Amino acid sequence: MTKPMLFAAILLAAMAGDAAAVESWNSPCLLDIRQIKEDWTRISTPQLQSAVAREVTRAEQSYRRGREQECQDRVAKIKELMK
After folding, report:
1. Segment (H or E) for 82
2. pLDDT band at 15, cuts 50/70/90?
3. Which of 22, 39, 40, 71 allows an S-S link to 29, with CB 3.0 to 4.6 Å?
4. In terms of Cα–Cα distance, which of 23, 36, 29 is closest to 65?
5. Is pLDDT above 80 for 20?
6. pLDDT for 81
7. Alpha carbons 1 and 6: distance in angstroms, whole number
8. Which of the pair, 4 or 46, is modelled with greater confidence?
9. What mean pLDDT is predicted for residues 9-37?
């Protein structure tokens, strides 16, 4: 393989990796977490704020570990807390 071809192959592989990373930001779990953070001001008590903050942290950790379903379950729990 010539140097230009090798460079092109590496570049394509890097771009493919970036595309996969961008797609992961479209996760329904992350979209819900972003909305929860925007709705933070509706939380009435410090105790509830603390509970929601803990669950948001845990949901984000689940997402980073690749546990999409666990993340979605935590988001559902947060939504219930915020009602």
Report:
1. helix 68-82
2. very low
3. 71
4. 29
5. no
6. 87
7. 6
8. 46
9. 63
With beta carbons less than 8 A apart as the criterion, state whether 48 and 77 touch.
Answer: no
Give the Cα separation of 83 and 81 in Å (integer): 6
Confirm whether pTM is higher than 0.85.
no
73: CB partners within 8 A, 6+ apart: none
- What percent of the residues of the chain are helix, what percent strand, and what percent coil, each to the nearest 5? 85, 0, 15
Distance CA 26, CA 53 (A): 22
Q: Whole-angstrom Cα distance, residue 30 to residue 24?
A: 9
Are 43 and 69 in contact, with CB atoms under 8 Å apart?
Answer: no
